[in-house]
Amino acid sequence: MEADIKSLIKMMAIVDCFSTLDRKLSAATIAKRTSMPRPTTHRLLRTMRSLGLIEQERERDQYSLGMKFFEVGTTVLQNMDLHNQARSSVESLARVTGESVHLSVFDGVSSTVVNRTDPEGTRVNTLFVLESSPAHATATGKCALAFQPESTIKRFLSLGLRKLTINTITDSSDLVDELNNIRRLGYAIDDEELEIGTKCVAAPIRSSSGRVIGGISVSGQANRFTQERIESLSEIVKQYAQTISARLDYYPSEHEETENLPPIADLRTAREAKGKGGREAADAGDEVKVKARRAS
């Protein structure tokens, strides 16, 4: 029994290696990311392939998630309260703004899109999807992360901030500043941080307990998202997020403590703190030298 549980944990570690950015991986890459021996990795991959959890390309050492996850994911979506309660609001927001709308859930690490609605003239096209992206690079991810307990934020920062575009925030201190700003404004912006040419505006969605479980966003071509339009869209998106939260039985008056959160502390990683401390010491030393030269 204990051996079965250990094998299951290892399989889940393999599943976690995949994302929308890493759709196909070699056994060597999976072994490295999971810190498992290659023979163990190959054995688990064979088992997962027999269960439909993993697919392998013919004559190539390339693996991807199997269709079994699509079947399970579809069932999860159909049973998800957020998905069911938000659908009409998502479609309405797409019509009102004329832009694509994403409904996402947050798992502590990634922001996963579960509903994407695109405007098509007077109609909207809704797709039920499961696409995960690093939270720090998306508007929905950042607006969800901003309202999490500091322990969750600290754990997220410890995983590292992967650079996806030249605009992605990769410094912990900078991200903490961004999250504090999101707490103050009540919305987040993806300034071409996930994909160059696309900007997004998102607001958090809360469950009945007041916990932020995801977000709703409006996204479109960057040249259409001027600062003036972003400010206008932010108010609209926040209103829709509040409507969805109310449908999930969240009432602000009953959860006032979640509306007035204190600023997030400096949660830089030890490496960044050491690096910044060294730079500050060097700057201070340079300043002393300048003053000494002036005095002489």
Structural class: alpha+beta
Return residue spans where pLDDT drops below 50 for at least 5 consecutive residues: 278-296
Mean pLDDT figure: 83
- Write down the secondary-structure element order: HHHEEHHEEEEHHHEEEHH
In what range is the share of β-strand residues? Answer: 15-25%
Q: Can you say what the CATH homologous superfamily of the largest domain is?
A: GAF domain
Rounded Rg: 22 Å
Q: With helices defined by DSSP (H or I, 4 residues minimum), what is the helix count?
A: 10
Principal-axes shape call:
globular
Query: Structurally, how many domains make up the residues?
Result: 2
CATH topology of the largest domain: Beta-Lactamase
User: End-to-end span in angstroms?
Assistant: 78 Å
Give the SSE layout:
Blueprint: H1 2-15, H2 27-34, H3 38-50, E1 54-56, E2 63-65, H4 67-79, H5 81-97, E3 100-106, E4 110-120, E5 123-127, E6 131-134, H6 139-145, H7 150-158, H8 172-185, E7 188-191, E8 198-206, E9 212-221, H9 227-247, H10 270-295
Antiparallel strand pairs: 1-2, 3-4, 3-9, 4-5, 4-6, 7-8, 8-9
Helix pairs in contact: 1-3, 2-3, 5-9
